[in-house]
Structure formats: structure tokens, C-alpha cells
Amino acid sequence: MYYPPLGTMALALVLLQLCLLIAAEGSLSLFDRITQLPGQPPVMFQQYSGYVTVDEKKQRALFYYFAEAQVDCASKPLVLWLNGGPGCSSLGVGAFSENGPFRPSGQVLVKNQYSWNREANMLYLESPIGVGFSYSSNAAAYETVNDRITGMSQPSFETFFLFNCHYIPQLADLILQFNKKEKLFNLKGIALGNPVLEFAMDFNSRAEFFWSHGLISDTTYTMFTSACNYSRYVSEYYKGSVSPVCSRVMGQVSRETSRFVDKYDVTLDVCISSVLSQSKILNPQQVADNVDVCVEDETVNYLNRKDVQNALHARLVGVHQWAVCSNILDYELLDLEIPTITIVGRLVKAGIPVLVYSGDQDSVIPLTGSRTLVHRLAQELGLKTTVPYRVWFEGQQVGGWTQVYGNILSFATIRGASHEAPFSQPERSLVLFKAFLQGQPLPEAF
User: Which segment of the chain is annotated as a signal peptide (predicted)?
Assistant: First the structure.
């Protein structure tokens, strides 16, 4: 059984406080309402952003951005979106690069016609402290941060969904523990996008993905699956002791795959400026048919403008500029080795619908590992297949493939999508999002 530390409990209570404020709305409007973001086109929905205090004495606070549903917000569910990384911003990545209402474009913002606030009230939280605009006046707060601390920073409207990252299962599990004492959260489901569910299975799927997409040779594939697999390399790397054999294998893999291929979407062109500055994550996006692979650069520039920070009621504490992923956190990276698939199983047994979805062009956490793990979990839980593996449609095109077990555990791919699926396939991602919120099967015809 997973028992969260007291700090985790406190963070969950902070999130409850934030959700109650959102539900009441009056408390938010006095201080946190955004009049208008610089360069923003006119919209009919309200936006809020600001801080929720985690520890007043130590001056620790989490930054949030909240976009009301575009239509009839009172009847729409609340969705909490968290990006992983670990230590990457849900504001800059999720809201401004994936599924939020706007995209930065030069000095202005443009509307995202596939924004998820078409279907839900969207809450983006920069978590843990030390990510983005979230801060502590005590630098010690950035030391030894782990998934248990990060995962418990979260939400209730009438209905409430959790979306996206590796530590969502821990948060959902804690919410269920809270609800045993008092029904504080009406949790309706969780969805995990390209998540690490089980370290070895997910990471070692990379070799086959590279080979099947022509990124590595037959010889290198053999070395990558026998002499040193990827999970062994990552574990050695995080422990600071990479063996000579793993160093040789990974050197060969890196030479063949090339740094000019985006590992988060092997079919997507790269932003050269990001590659040359050794950016670790590419989170491109735009509203039109073509993908703006340099949107990360534009987001960084936009969120570091003083007029933008003033409009967001944000401030920089202990850092000189806002960054996509935190470079001040001492994150327990080996937490990646802690499996979350068992927690997912507990959630399913508790009656919480779970969707695992994969952008099928992501080589970092490939779909093959996720699909295998979900199928294995369904077998362990004794769940029958209720929707056999089949295609689903967006418009008149195949949007991806899906399989459902016991009408409660689902797997889906998003065709042509990257690790950050809403960035590269926004319309298909919105179709999947809407179907999950409504508890409906993905379209099987057009």
C-alpha cells in the first residue's frame, strides 16, 4: 500500500482549497482574474491565474492557470492537467504548447481552435515547487523532490478528471483515501498520455521502435537488446556510473538516430535553434495545418516578458527567468523505476475509469510498451474485452486504434501524434478527450 508523506497530504488539501475557490468563483475573481493577456485575441470565457500557498511560513506557493469552458462552464467538468518531465511546466507545455486556448506567435497569441476548454474547465498547475513560476523562498525545498511530493498538488467541480503524467496515479490513489473519510472529490476518471507505467517494459520498448522505424541498424538493435538495454543505461546514468559497455552501445545508438531527429516524434522536423541549444524537450504547436516546431522558443520568450508576467500575476523567485523545465530541482530521477501500473489497477478496481493513450510516433515512451502493460493488467484484473482492437475515426480519416476492457480500462493510440499528442495532432486529440469525458466509445465510423 502506498502511504503519502505529510507534505503530500498538505498539497492535496491546498488543491482542494483551490478547487473550492474555483467552484465559488467569487474568491478568484477578486485577485486572480486575468483582464487580458498581452497580444490576446478577444474571447468570451474567463481566465484566472495566481498562487496557492502550500506553506506560509516557508513562503512556498504553487502557480496555476485556469481557463473556463468556452460555453456553459457551470455544467462542464473540471480537468486538472499536469505535465511530467519530471519537472516540466504545465503552463508552458500543456497550456501554451498543447491544449490551452492560445498559442504564442511572435509578439501575439493566436486562438487554438482545438483547445480542450471547448469541452471542460481546464486547470493547469506548475508542480512541484521550483517548476515555472511556482516557488519557495527556501532553496532547501528544491532538494530531494519525488513523485509522491509532486503528485499531490491537486482538484472538484461537479465532476473532476485528472489528465496526463507519471504521478497522476499516486494523486488519484490519495484522493480515494481522502474520500474514504469524507467525500471531498468527485473523481470521474484519469487519463495518462505516453506515461511511464513500468520502467523496464516502457523504456526497453525504445529499441524495437527505433529499429522498426529505420533509425538504427540490425547490428545496433541486437546490441541494444542484449549487451545493454535502455532501462539498464538509464538506471546507470541516474546513479552516476555508466558502464563501458552501455557507454559504447548508447554512443552507437545516438550516432545512428542523430540529434536532428526529434525522439518525441520521429517523423517531425526539428527546431534547429532548440537542437543547437541542446534543448531536451521539443513541444511545438500551432493552430494551422502545419506544426510550428519552434513554439517552445516562442513560449519561453512570451512567458519571460514582464507585461505577460504582470498579466498572469506571476513572479520569479530564486530564478532569473521562466524555463520550460526546471533546472533547480534535485529530483529523485530513480522514482521512474517505481511502477505505477499496480496503482492503476487499484483505481480500476475502485471503479475509476482509466484511459492510457499514446502518440504513435513517440520513441521515448513507445505505444508498444503501454499497450502490453494495459493488456496484461486487464488479464490480471479478469476484465473481458468489451471493445476489440479496432480503428477509430476523426472526420473521414483514421484517428488511431483502441481497445477497451470491462468498459472501464481503455487503451488508445493517436495516429501521427508525438509524445505531446495535442501538439502534433490537436484535432484527433480533442476527439479522444471529448469521448473520454462523455464516457463514449471512440468513433468507429465516419
Answer: 1-26
